[in-house]
Specification:
Blueprint: E1 2-8, E2 11-16, E3 28-37, H1 41-45, E4 62-69, E5 81-83, H2 94-97, E6 135-138, E7 146-148, H3 154-157, H4 163-174, E8 181-185, H5 189-200, E9 204-208, H6 212-220, E10 223-226, H7 232-238, E11 247-250, H8 260-269, H9 274-283, H10 290-298, E12 304-307, H11 320-326, E13 329-332, H12 337-348, E14 363-366, H13 370-378, E15 387-390
Parallel strand pairs: 8-9, 8-11, 9-10, 11-12, 12-13, 14-15
Antiparallel strand pairs: 1-2, 3-4, 3-6, 3-15, 4-5, 5-7
Helix pairs in contact: 4-5, 4-12, 7-10
Length: about 400
């Protein structure tokens, strides 16, 4: 089959790789009909390269048609249409029963001290082949895949794999009462959905991004938009009676603008042998923290900072004096996708499309076009906000 593979820093290419096969009784093989490039895929493209291996199949936002099931599968059959959550969870361990599927005890990558295994997301999360491919082996398919109808287009459902539940969880964690104010830092795909979810919940949304096309899209869905600047925290306070927003959702993560020292650290990591670079990431502060520090500065006293953006440094400095003095609540973590899918499906199947899932994709292509689309997405060129790939053309 054809698959998109990691070849090195800022280098991905389409290769012929072996077709996946059933390995366990609860496996399924899915023919991928649509798969998306996620903002966190760009971390593999840049910062998390030391945990990647040449030839790794990447991608963690797929959906498709069930081609084959293992003997232990009773909930799926050949021909079913499914969305595949990016985290691999069993559904029956202690963590899954708590609604913490991203911490699944059955698939935890204990050798790296990490939570549940993820599709296509490096040695840190199990080196499981990903979904930017024509076929995907899905472990624990007796629980993970979300079965959907046959009538609506793929793009109505595709984002249930990651970015939509990630945004939903981020807004849940922000815990803003109706009528309150939520600031969303970063208007990439997760930030766009956070804006829409907040608006549906009756919140005032302040959407922040330096890219005009992203601000324009967010404004279409109810956000008051603000350009990124060095005085952003003060601007957000001015817009909220001098207090600051009730909560700030950071949808940016480890590669924020305005962090030159950490930007230098990212470049330096790329020059180290992989094992040394891994050690540096596991012991040092290598995150670009401009967005997170802005969120802490801007949020009102007693407010909440909700982290949906991915961070990777183990010793990133935090302004604990301010955090303690302001009595800030901080919530974060990989999304527990299956915890939220039942709540989200009715929104996706509503003819009115209340979350605007059909107004997100800006670029589409084949697997062969994926390397150029990765570069365009990473550079934020041509108004690129969300890319969907069709593995079969």
């Amino acid at each position: 089959m054809k698959a998109l593979t990691w070849q090195g820093k800022r280098s991905v290419s389409v290769k012929d790789v072996p077709d996946p096969v059933i390995q366990e009784r609860t496996d399924a093989i899915v023919r991928i009909t649509s798969t998306a490039i996620c903002g966190s895929d760009l971390h593999l493209y840049e910062v998390l390269g030391p945990y990647m291996h040449k030839g790794d199949v990447i991608g963690h936002e797929p959906m498709g048609i069930v081609e084959e099931v293992g003997h232990g599968i009773t909930n799926l059959r050949t021909g079913d249409r499914v969305v595949i959550p990016f985290n691999i969870s069993c559904g029956h361990c202690y963590m899954c029963r708590q609604g913490l599927q991203s911490q699944c005890e059955t698939t935890q990558v204990r050798g790296k001290g990490s939570g549940a295994a993820l599709f296509g997301y490096s040695e840190l999360y199990g080196s499981v082949p990903g979904g930017q491919a024509q076929y995907l082996r899905v472990p624990h398919a007796d629980y993970g895949p979300v079965k959907i109808g046959q009538e609506l287009p793929d793009e109505r459902y595709l984002f249930l794999s990651d970015i939509l539940p990630t945004a939903w969880q981020g807004v849940e964690y922000a815990d803003v009462a109706p009528g309150g104010t939520l600031a969303v830092l970063g208007l990439g795909p997760v930030g766009q959905f956070a804006v829409r979810i907040g608006a549906v919940r009756g919140l005032r949304i302040l959407g922040v991004d330096p890219v005009p096309e992203r601000r324009e899209m967010a404004a279409r869905h109810g956000a008051e938009t603000v350009d990124y600047s060095d005085t952003l925290a003060a601007e957000l306070r001015e817009l909220t009676d001098g207090r600051g927003p009730d909560a700030v959702l950071d949808a940016v993560g480890m590669e924020a603008h305005g962090s030159p020292a950490a930007g230098f650290a990212h470049q330096a990591l790329g020059l180290l042998p992989d094992k040394l670079a891994q050690k540096a990431m596991e012991t040092a502060g290598v995150d670009r923290l401009a967005a997170l520090h802005t969120a802490i500065d801007a949020v009102r006293r007693g407010g909440t900072v909700s982290l949906s953006g991915v961070y990777g440094g183990q010793a990133s400095p935090m302004p604990l004096l301010s955090m303690f003095d302001k009595q800030i609540q901080l919530r974060m973590g990989q999304c527990n996708v299956r915890r939220w899918t039942d709540e989200l499906l009715p929104f996706l199947e509503d003819d009115a499309d209340p979350l605007g899932v059909m107004d997100l994709v800006t670029h589409r292509g084949t697997l062969d076009e994926a390397p150029a689309l990765y570069e365009k997405f990473q550079k934020k060129e041509d108004g690129c906000i969300k890319v969907v790939l069709r593995p079969w053309g």
